[in-house]
């Protein structure tokens, strides 16, 4: 059963994109999109060589969202290509099943045109209607200005910093946890 009704919207760059739930057949394109945007960002704590998922594993990952009621994976598409995604991974343990952690990203050329705002707004709206979810959370580098601006704008609150949590090329970065109540 479809969890999310596809949405069509025009971004600040005047391009029209579709936001829809990911399907198993999107695995290859989605993996390529993520493999492209991870090394294009200083604020995703994963090195290019650490993205080792096969297409089969990517299919399993997509299936997690299709089969877990407290989880959602949305993709943004432009002219049949996947340009970004947002995932709400609901916790599978009973005591934390009302919580989901958010991950999101997009190709560099699509940043700062409002796509992140659209993806996150739609994900929050979906979570508000979800019968299990009550709390969404995410972690963000305190230097990630676009991310921070977006999360604060949509109502996320700061919920603690782990100092020096990330270390890259001998430099340390702080990790901020942010949360939003959806009930
Ligand atoms: C972080 C990310 C998801 C945000 O999505 P996006 O589409 O670029 O964000 P939006 O365009 O919707 O919003 C960005 C906001 O930051 C603002 N902004 C831009 N530059 C800024 C700066 N230097 N300082 C503060 N705010 C800034 C924009 O004006 C916009 O705010 P507005 O809507 O009030 O005008 C996206 O940039 C991305 O994928 N980055 C790389 C991966 C990543 O960081 N993922 C998140 C990990 S937590």
TrEMBL record:
Checking InterPro entries in the record gives: Acyl_CoA_acyltransferase (IPR016181), GNAT_dom (IPR000182)
Please tell me whether the keyword Ribosomal protein is annotated for this protein: no
Q: Where is the N-acetyltransferase domain?
A: 17-183
One MF term from GO for this chain? acyltransferase activity, transferring groups other than amino-acyl groups
Entry's Pfam families? Acetyltransf_1
Where are the coiled-coil regions?
none
Q: Which UniProt keywords apply?
A: Transferase
Name used for this protein in its record: GNAT family N-acetyltransferase
């Amino acid at each position: 059963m479809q969890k999310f009704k596809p949405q069509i919207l025009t971004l600040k760059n005047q391009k029209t994109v579709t936001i829809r739930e990911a399907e198993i057949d999107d695995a290859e394109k989605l993996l390529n999109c993520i493999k492209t945007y991870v090394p294009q960002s200083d604020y995703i704590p994963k090195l290019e060589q650490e993205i080792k998922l096969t297409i089969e594993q990517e299919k399993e990952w997509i299936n997690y969202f299709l089969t877990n009621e407290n989880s959602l994976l949305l993709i943004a598409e432009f002219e049949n290509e996947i340009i970004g995604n947002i995932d709400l991974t609901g916790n599978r343990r009973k005591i934390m099943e009302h919580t989901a952690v958010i991950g999101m990203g997009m190709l560099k050329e699509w940043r700062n045109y409002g796509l992140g705002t659209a993806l996150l707004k739609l994900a929050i709206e979906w979570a508000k209607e979800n019968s299990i979810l009550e709390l969404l959370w995410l972690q963000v580098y305190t230097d990630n200005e676009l991310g921070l601006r977006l999360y604060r704008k949509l109502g996320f609150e700061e919920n603690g910093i782990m100092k020096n949590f990330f270390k890259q090329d001998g430099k340390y970065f702080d990790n901020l946890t942010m949360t939003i109540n959806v009930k």
